[in-house]
Amino acid sequence: MRPHCHVGIIALTGALVLAAPRPATAHDPEPPRDLGHGDDVAHHWTLQVDPLTTALGYAHIQVERRLAGDWSLYAGPHLRLFDGILHEDDEPSYRGYGAELGLRYFFRGGAPEGWWGQVRGVLARVHGDGQTSPGGYVSALAGHTWIFGERWVLAGGLGVQYIDYGVGDAGIQSVFPAAHTTFGVAF
Fold first, then answer.
1. DSSP-based helix, strand, coil % in the chain, nearest 5
2. SS3 of 178, please?
3. Quick one: pLDDT at residue 44?
């Protein structure tokens, strides 16, 4: 991994730690948790980063909001700032700047925790070799989000995606497996 990759990962991890709510004390009341379809859940928001896509060269920060009962929506920047760990030296480099949006339906537990199915999309401007073009991908995934210690989030999922992301001879256009791997905080 390149040195500036480490700096980005360390900065994202630091931001998560600083954004984490203060720990509960014995004097704090237990927040209500409705694991069904009500609105009295402990968490309505999550802030997550994806270490797998970061290692592949794509930095994602996801801000997720519970919409109602079983639904959540997340959005965040989509940045391809460096060549990832799978990049070969003879491949041309390219960069991308855009946004990601995802909609999740939670089958059990109520948003933002439990088993879910999701659709997501990325739209980006891809730059490389003196050229610019639109790029992006769409995905359908299924997975699970765990919230533990009253604030920490760990999520994972698998699915399929169509990618059209590149410029000139650089990039990719194909159907691929999709993965969702995040950690973060809930509030």
1. 10, 55, 30
2. strand
3. 94
Determine, yes or no, domain membership for 28. Answer: no
> How many domains does the chain fold into?
1
pLDDT, residue 120, reads: 97
78 — alpha (psi -120 to 50), left (phi > 0) or beta? beta
Distance, in Å, from the CA atom of 60 to the CA atom of 77, rounded to the nearest integer, reads 6
Domain containing residue 89 = 3-21+40-186
Looking up tokens 């950690």, which residue turns up? Answer: 183
- Determine how β-strand 71-80 pairs with β-strand 95-108: antiparallel
Q: Residue 158 falls within a domain, yes or no?
A: yes
pLDDT digits (tens, 9 = 90+) for 114-160: 999 999 999 999 998 889 999 999 999 999 999 999 899 999 999 99
- Closest by CA position to 77, among listed 49, 55, 52: 49
pLDDT band at 89; cut points 50, 70, 90: confident
- Supply 148's token pair: 């533990």
Res 14 pLDDT > 80: no
The H or E element containing residue 14 is: helix 3-19
